[in-house]
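[User]
Protein folding is very new to me. Any chance you could explain this protein sequence and its structure tokens? I have pasted everything here:
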Amino acid sequence: MFEDSLIESGNRLRTNRGRTAAISFGLQAILVGILVLIPLLITEALPKQQLTTFLVAPPPPPPPPPPPAAPVHIVHQVQTDIVNNQLRTPTRIPQKVQMIKEDAAPPSMGAMGGVVGGTGGGSPGGVIGGILSSTNIKAPTVAAPQRIRVSSGVSTGNLIRKVTPQYPGIARTAHISGSVILEAEISKEGDVVNLHVLGGPPLLRQAAIDAVKQWKYRPYLLNGEPVVVDTQVTVIFSLGG
């Protein structure tokens, strides 16, 4: 040893440190392997309760409730002695025969179709036939209209006096012709009381109004009574006539 520590020795002495280290590492590896294999080989030392808890599958879910039972319809078969709308001979004699007692018919209340609670002696048809025949009911009177409208053809048929309009000189000079349409109101006496111009040349309108105001109509009667009439009047102006 003392020689190995000196530089002058030149490492003449050999040591066994490498072999010792290899043996030490091998022993340690064997020891670690034994420690690892012991729990795997000896299973009795493991916690069985925890392993069993981990490995047991959870219980299955409860089954769904059964569907509600459908209501049972009990069909009672009624025995009858009528087959194909014909009465057949009964097969047995009943022990007790019940007598069916019908109620008395109510007293007659009048004709069929009458009003319940009405008096006797009614007539078929009820309200219209019975009430109108038993009481004198006057039909409501409808007031006749005081004003109506008729066509120009009807009003022309009632015309009894017609005044020809004077052709305006300025319109004749300007060679203006045409028709003037007027809205006329005829009184119950047949007089023209109101006029409105609906159309026509402006130079001819006043002449048409002045002439139609003098016209006279036969009173228009409705249900025998004279009424006011609204109509249209057409006045024609022609240069040739």
